[in-house]
Amino acid sequence: AQKKNKNGGIYCQGKAYGFEKKLQVASAYFEALRINNDSRPNIKSLSESLVASRKFDRKIEAELITQGRVLLPNEIHTNRDCPRGPGANTMDHFDKFVLLRLYLEEPSRSLSSYKQ
Predict the structure, then answer these.
(1) pTM score over 0.85
(2) pLDDT (tens digit per residue) in 64-105
């Protein structure tokens, strides 16, 4: 079922936007970056002008920062099995053991709440 986001854009829950939408956001992001003299653009304003969600625009911004470009759909699927999330690449077995013990002690805490 199609829904409207807060900015009036149409999306389907669980279905990714097309690559063309990613390119549109990337183009607008770079234009806003140029206008702001290389300062980070206002994502809320960008989202409103593109009728996309801020979450989607931040995702594209992250791709541009980390990859230098937007990723093709097949590249995203290829990288899907890699570790993700807070501490995914920096935790050793002891760190994971400590987190497990803390979780068992207080299950309502999120993993990100354990950051220092």
Answers:
(1) no
(2) 888 888 888 888 766 666 666 666 667 778 888 887 888 888
SS3 at position 21 = helix
pLDDT at residue 84, as a whole number: 62
Contacts by 20-29 with C-beta closer than 8 Å and gap 24+?
A: 21/52, 21/56, 22/60, 22/63, 22/70, 23/70, 24/50, 25/50, 25/52, 25/56, 25/57, 25/60, 25/70, 26/60, 26/64, 26/69, 26/70, 29/57, 29/60, 29/61, 29/64
- How far apart CA 36 and CA 13 sit, in angstroms, is 33
8 A C-beta contact, residue 55 and residue 7 = no
Which tokens sit at 33? 């970056």
